[in-house]
Amino acid sequence: MDPRHRQILETNQQYLCDKIIPECIVDTLRADEILSSDDSERISYEKTKAKKVMKILQIVKEHPKGYDFFLKSIKDNGMEFVYDQLQSTKIDENALKRDEDWSNEKIDEVLKMNFCGAVGETTYLGTIVDDLKYQFKIMGESCFVNYNYIKRQVLQIFPESQQIKHKKRGAGFKNLQRVCRDGSEHEDKKYSLQNPKDCCNPVESLPSKPIEDDLKPQKKCISELSPAELVDLISPRYEEYDLPKETSKFITTGQITGKHFIRLRNEYLKGPFPTFSEGDKLSLMFLRDDICGEEQNRVHSECSSDVKILGDASFDELELEHYRERFHKFDTDVLPTDCYKQNAFVQSSMTRRPGNLLEPVHYFSNITSETQNLYASIAAEVIPFAAACLNERTNGTLHFGINPRSHDIQMEGVIKGLCLSRDECIRLINSKILQQFYNDQHTLAFKCIRPPKFIDVSSKDATIQMYVVEVDIVPKFDLVGEEAFFVKETTGHPVIYLFNENGISPQHITEEKVITYITKDRSLLSEYRKKEENKPKCTPIKKDLRQKMLNLLGANNDQMPKDSCPLVFLSPMDTSRCTDDELNNFEFLIELDPSAFFDFDFPINRRGLNDYLEIGKNQALNALTTDNFCPQSFEQYSTKENTFNWVEEMRQSKLKPWIFCNGYEAMGKVEMPKKEWKFSRSKGFKDAIRFYRGEIPVGRALVIFLLCSKQYDVLLEAAEEVILNFRNEWVVIAENKDITDQWFAELIRRETIDKEEMEKRSVIGMSWAHVNQTIRQISSTQRSHCCEIPTSIGVYCHLPEKKRNELHDLDILSRNECDDPEFLTDTVKLEEKQIEVAEGYYHGAAISWWNFWFSDHVVKRDVHQKLEIMLRDALEGKNTDDENRIGLVKIYHQPGSGGTTTAKHALWDLRLQYRCCVVKQITTTEQTVDQIIELRNFDEKDDPKPLLLLIDNGEEDKVSDLFSILQNKAKIAARRSNSEVKVFCVLLLCIRRAITPTQLDQTSIALKHFLSQKELFWFQTKRKSLNENYNDHKGIHPKYLISFNILTENFNQKYIRKTAKEFVEAVDDLDERRLLKYLSLLKMFDSDCPPLPTSAFDPIMITYKKGFKLAFGLVSDHGRQIFNPWDATISDTLQLLLNRSSQVGLAKQLSGLSIIHPLFAKEIFSCFNNQPQCTSQIVLEFLNSALFSSCNMSSNEVLRVVQNMMKKRDENEMSVKMKFSRLIMKILEEENDIKAAEILLKVFQMTKDAMVCQQIARLYIHCQKWDLAVEYARTATEIKPQNSFLWDTYGQVYMKQLLAEYLTISQSCDPPSTSLNVTVVTNVIDIAKLGIEKFQKEQEVSEYETSRTYNDAGYYGELRMIILLLDMLRNLGCPKELLRKFLTVQTFLPHEMSYLNQVSVEFLKGLEENAEVTMRTIEEKLTQLKDDTYNSVHVFVNPMIIKNAVGNIKYNLNTYFGEEGALIQADVPEREKADIRRRYIRSIGGQSLFNYLRTDDVKDLHQILEMLLQNVLSDNLEIFDIVNLITVVIALKIRKEKHTKISYNELVCLSRKCYEKVISSKEKRQYLEAYMYLVLFNWPTDSRSKDIICSIDQLRDATKRWKEAFYENHPRLKERANKSQGKRETTIFFLGNGTEMDAIVHYEELGDPHNRRFIRGDKIWETPDFVTKLLRIQGTLINEGTEVSCNITPLTGGLTPFVVPTSLQIVNRSLWQKKIYFVLGFGWAGIRAYDVRQSLPSDVHHLTPEVGSSNSNQQTGSGRKQTVKITTHDEFIEKIDKLRKDLEQIRESIEKEKKGENVKRLQKKEEELKKELKNLLQTREDFFGN
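The structure corresponding to this sequence follows.
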């Protein structure tokens, strides 16, 4: 209708209702076909005249010509006055203009949305108009078609289109195409509303798209098949069943349907199948049976499938009847976060018209994805439901994809989802509304029937998108008024749909119920609806969620407690939440600073929170999976010790663990559905939870569940384990109740929580933005400001926060450290900060950088300038060389003397020139080294300045490993650098010692408990300043700054004792006194005791009061008494004695307590350590206290200190460790060994620590309780069987037992027995045998240990045990020569030893071979391997100790197995002669080239050569003879001694003979010299005769076997073959330019011109000797610089390629794949290519030698002449006898004289002799116990 006419009718609506007689004009309008018969019928049932007129006007408005025929009917029925009134009505042009503008705007939108330009396509104007009308209809608006406007807009919007005109179809547009949003093109007139037949088409005739390919059409049952369909089904199988082709004809002609077919019997077949034989009949029956059986199976399978779908949750650990969803909120848009969970249940309390019409009715449709004509079926069901809701005036929702559980009463539905096209579904629903609702009600229908909502259905294993389709009906009163909604039916009569007991049913207009509804109920329902809508909305009182969050997270404080350990559990994120804006709302996770994140999200192709924090917010996170916590997982497939180290790293590292709980894409771990997760990953998750439960003290955890979506089924499964472990320590945060309903419903059903807990422990309703704001306000985390560090070119670069976090082992000192704008711009805050940090430091807190920033806080010690000079010298490379590029400076200091402060002061002063940092921890040496290198190289190009590293009291082994790795990295960096790298980095070692060393080198300083006068003056001046501040009310009284006063009093012991006593007496609370006693105990006996977590002392500080046990927990109950931490209420006096720290516990998150000063701890403890309590009683009281009643992170921290108290031994002024720990030594001195053992046993019972068990064994060794010592040594090795040090203790038990007997007998005045005591000797042999077994086990274990500490003590222990056994046999009366002959002559058994059993005889006879092999092993380890560890710079170990120990042992062994002279009797058999020669050679220092080169008398070498030649030429030749013969010849050559006894060619032949004997021998330890000499003497050169050298194949075989033999001799190096640090093989020979022996060049032959010092490092290759003496071989560098391929000439001539590995990878890529020259070096593991270069060296550089360093590795001496005095058994016995006789004479003299000056002189002499005797015994004991 024209808008003008519509406005006239609407303006005169009330006038028309009053004046028009409806019955008159109805007939006229019906005759003019404006009204239909249905319209007339509907009008007639309106009960009032006005309503009838209104209905007429409503229908007329929807007809294009309605207004003209309405005027006509008025005139025809004599109502001209009405006609005149309408004609005279004025038009509101402004209103028309507004409507027209709105209409035109919508037309433009529809054109742009539904059409597009397309070359060659044509669209007609009729199609465009139909589309516009359709779109306006579904918007509930009328559309007046202005064809001219539409044409103009099409041409304007689509300029490429051209207007055309078709003869039949009228106007159109070329190059224009309609766009269908579902991807298909609509035919013209698909939306045509002009055809009146469209209004009557049945549902089945509606056009519909083909169902998707993945939706299978429903198959008919056999009983439903027609004859033709039956033939189609069975005819393909005729041949299989041997049926004639006529079968189809018989079925068709006989009209046999499927129903007949399934009931066929044999007797029925004769008529329909007249020509069938009996066999044909049977075949047909068989076919029938098989087809029916197949259908039965198919139906059963489908039913099973349905059952399985309905039961999925039960198989997926989530029973369907328990997993309930909430309906999507009525009449609201679908958000991207909205979804339903497949197989969950929804429940409705409203299934028919409710009492409250605003409460929606819920109906669940039976339609599934397999339903035929899916879209038409959905549309068909919408109409009845919508009409019923409209007529009943009730809100309602029709759900598709939620299957009803009951067909009678639809109260519950299971969510399944539908697979469909959204656009097609909407199109057919809209079309159905247009078809079945009358035209006059289309506008109302579309306004009340909301567009379908498509809500995602989530399923873990879904492969296609599924939806629940919901249609909301909202019949608002202001829209529908009292309208009755009729629906067209195919019967030709309008019907009304209403609710009844059986659901929805159509009512014919003539039925009584409809009449009642129209005449009565309709008005009542409309009025009731109006009242319900007009009722004032009840707004619930909003909870103060912020206060609730403060209660839960902050224990009702404005700040979160510092002692909290948050654990954050993250549900999967909704896809819509993964934008940057949304993720910014989770920034609070940074301030929350949790101990760990547990992430159940699995983001694919989107950002997750992990990515947001790590990349977006530069946070350094430690990526883990739950498998990392599961011992059986791949990640934990390692030794228990490695697992322990990994756990320790988690405890110490400040990297936040981010634990991916359900898939981690980076590691290829996919997301799992709940069932699979429960079987595959739940164990690891539970282990992770138990780990954190064990680490976090009860009441200190804060478990936060962040529910970001409803996809938390796996997290929900895991939540039960979390809540059970962290009872009363959890909270749930979510945005709305829709998300949490299922969460809490399931936990309540499982009885994991109750409703009260649910209410108290959840914060629901805060947006994530508000959560973010609130938590950031209450968190106490302080973010660091910009970090700037110097570069090598003098400028400063910015170190990003993320990079700084990643280098978590280092505390990096920034150039602008502490330049915090928050304080710099606020003088008040700055002054408060100054007072705070000053008082903290003076009270005893650890020094902070702030104390240096305020220039007057710290005294500059007298040693500061000296230390700074040392550091600058080290940083400039004044103390380094090419082999050592790591600078070392050491500060030895007594605890509390200011060593750490002095070291940090030096760093502060150097921070502007050098990058400085403190090594906070060495988690793993490789990781820490990587961080050091990363900091060194950050933003640098080629030549970074050296890094200055402070290591404060680091563990000796770890520091040694760190040095070793850094040393190797420095060498690599030097080779790769374009400029000289003199210093890689400098280590400033701050070493805490109770007693500082008396002797210091030039790079060491010491600080003791003493201040100089200058330093004292500074402190006294400072005290005056502090007094002035106190008087000005700017700080506390200085007398309470105890640490400051200790320094001011110059560590005065009387002051410390007096002050400690006063303060301790002032503490009167028993709990506080106990706390003070325990802390002083720990600090006194472990100077390195760190601050201990406050929570560790909860069990002894929290008590019952008035029958109520204080509950402590961060997540407190609302309205419940909230715990106030006990450490906040301790007395002021106790606070003065304690320091607080905030860097302890798991990942350094908890606050800790410690005694303010180590010296104060000693005096505090002494206040408790008096009668009746002694030290052991206090320790036992402490160990039995409630403090250890639980096992968690905090108590474990204390337990670790206790373990250190048992194990850590102090060093004396000579850097020799005490026998036991400080505590045990004190108890042994003041009490007895029984008390000491009791304490050790108690600690072992608590810890099961093998190292504590070792201390028990050592204590029993000390007490000479041998059986108990054996028991606990054995227990220790059973706990850690792969720890070689424990096996050493086990062996020492027997060593010390035998030694005790040896020393006892040695001091006895009785002369040695002339006959051996059988029992005693047998016992001695048994003890020695057991000891040697344990030392051999130690050797075996040490060769395969994974730790970097090399333990060779087992070899020394075995040799010392052998010496001790033989010395003991001498003490028991066995003559030396007799014993020597018995040991060395296999067939000799003297009468004196005939009583020994065969086992003992064989054991003793085998000692010589064992000693020889073991000694050779020791010497080979010393000569064949070099060490890059700490020992190489003589920090902790003096190499002379090892050298002297080896020489001493060899000398003692030679007294039993060696020969004193070279003369051999003639009657001795030849075999024995050969053995005698070998023993003599060993006695004078033979066996290795190193010893031969250091033999004092060169005549010995000629004698050795003569004796070896005799053996070589005899029939008793052994490998030893050939190897040593060649070695002696080489030694003579090196020492420039001539000989003529053997030619070069003979040596070449002998090298081959030696090699052949070695590869065929079965010796325990192979001679590597045999391989080396073969290659060394047989490598083809131009100067060597090809006739005498071996083949190339033999050389290749030898080099392969050589390496294998090396690793067989040194198996530990095979495990560490690819490691850059630790021991490595040495290189001793090079191939030279000369001929014969001159072609063999020893390393020591290549010295500097002055022979003062060997030039080491890369400079060596430029020295004259190296250039002139060494042969350069040509080759090609291959395999990325790791190998050289060279061509050598074989015996047969020509060239053969030979591959030689390079000594180090050549990183210069310009040399790769090119011709190069190299020097061939010979190491103990094979040949190597050295000095790889592109051209031959030309210039010879004369280098200045560096004096003061050794020219080779520190090796063993020859054994011939030693630098220290060596004591054998004979010398020991001789000296002890002499001393004994001297003492007897003195005693006799004293007895005679009795008085006088001479007696005093004799008594003094007696004391001196006793002291000498004691020293002698101690020296011998040290030899065996070293």
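The chain has a mean pLDDT of 81.
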